[in-house]
Amino acid sequence: MALDPRLDVAVAFGRSLLSWCLDGVPRPFSAAFAVTNRCNLRCGYCNTPFLDPTDLPLAKVELLFDRLAGFGVKRLGLAGGEPMARKDIGEIVAMAKARRFYLTMNTNLLLFEKHRPRLRDVDLFFTSLDGDREHHEAARGRGAYDGVLEAVARIVGEGRPVVAICVVTEHSIGQMDHLLGLAEAGGFRVHFQPQCTDTAIVRGGVAPELTTARLQRFWVELLARKRAGRPVASSVPYLETLATWADFTRSALLDPEVRCAASRGFLYVDPAGQAYPCAYTKGKAPAVDMLGDHWRDALGRETPCTRCSVGPYLEFNLLYQRPVRTGLSVAASYLTRPRTA
To answer: Within a 13 Å sphere around the CA of 245, how many CA atoms are in the beta-carbon half?
Structure first.
């Protein structure tokens, strides 16, 4: 009998953590693959739609998935751009599930109904939600709110989890309680992350009115709501770290006293099949061609930074740096159903 894919992920993470603690052979448990840079939105802080629009053909996607599985990866995140901008996204999902990955997808959900029958094997959806219609569309463009909550309701109604991601900008910083109210009513959770700066996949910068002191207060208030049982997906150690982050105009820094787990516990692959320690290091670290002869060189590389406030990668690193406390908090958010109002 096949294991629950979440148990596969947990076992793979345990092996990865052991290797990390012993400074052994890198054993990544998780990978993100940006299936395309193309997107139907132009969010104010995202540079991805302005990058190379070329997509890998399916035969090369299949080879990539075989090699990720060969690394021991058990959790695969399909990202973009907008993954559903690819007409063959259903085939990519099927390829991933044939290799028994626990499969997540980051999507704005605007094309969900068009692709819905081909997405039944996606285990968890991440989507974008920055507040009510006015504030969401201020960040992501006119029409970006259309049908999102309806798609979330349909996915949740099918028994699959949804985590909405709110990027904390001048548009969304006052939307915390509105979003948590929507999540309580709709049976999903919300992950909040700082606006990322200074890398190839982003553009713009933190608005001048968002001072470090103001942003620190935001994270302190969000931590209080998390502890009060509100549907905040972000872990407690993650929120504690951001509540004391010294400068939100700098998303990452090199601290010789800190190890980063990127390229050891997790990695990122762009739409051309080029691997980086994480998405933030695209343009900062050398790429490794996952389709070439030296694809195994993608693992165990030095990173240009070791500490960051970059939403998913901070959470991943905390799993390695504080595994018990972060792991319990993450498990509570991702393995249990949120309470509904």
So the answer is: 32
Asked if 35 contacts 81 with a C-beta cutoff of 8 angstroms, the reply is yes
**Using 50, 70 and 90 to split pLDDT, how confident is the model at 2?**
low
CA distance 333 to 238: 13
Helix axes 323-334, 311-321, angle to 10 degrees: 130
Alpha helices by DSSP H, 158-276: 176-186, 212-227, 236-243
Handedness of CA 195, 198, 202, 203 (dihedral sign): positive
CA distance 183 to 196: 24
Number of domains observed in the structure of the chain: 1
Q: What is the span of the domain harbouring residue 64?
A: 28-334
The residue type at 133: R
Tokens of 336: 């249990």
Query: In degrees rounded to 5, what are phi and psi of residue 133?
Result: -55, -45
Whole-angstrom distance, CA of residue 137 vs CA of residue 146: 10
- Which of 78, 79, 89 shows the shortest CA–CA distance to 48? 79
Q: In one letter, which amino acid is 208? A: P
Judge whether 15 lies within some domain: no
Q: What CATH number did the domain enclosing 313 receive?
A: 3.20.20.70
pLDDT per position as a tens digit, 154-172? 999 999 999 999 999 999 9
Average pLDDT, the chain: 95
| Torsion, CA 58, CA 312, CA 124, CA 138, rounded to 10 | -90
Helix (H, G, I), strand (E, B) or coil at 37: coil
- The enclosing H or E element of 148 equals helix 148-157
Residue 141 neighbours by CB under 8 Å, 6+ apart = 41, 42, 43
Look-up of token digits 């075989």: 66
- Per DSSP, the three-state class of 90 is helix
Largest CA distance in the chain: 56
**How does DSSP classify residue 63?**
H
pLDDT of residue 76: 98
In a domain, 51, yes or no: yes
In a domain, 221, yes or no: yes
* Rounded-to-integer distance, Cα 278 and Cα 21, Å: 20
Inside any domain, residue 285: yes
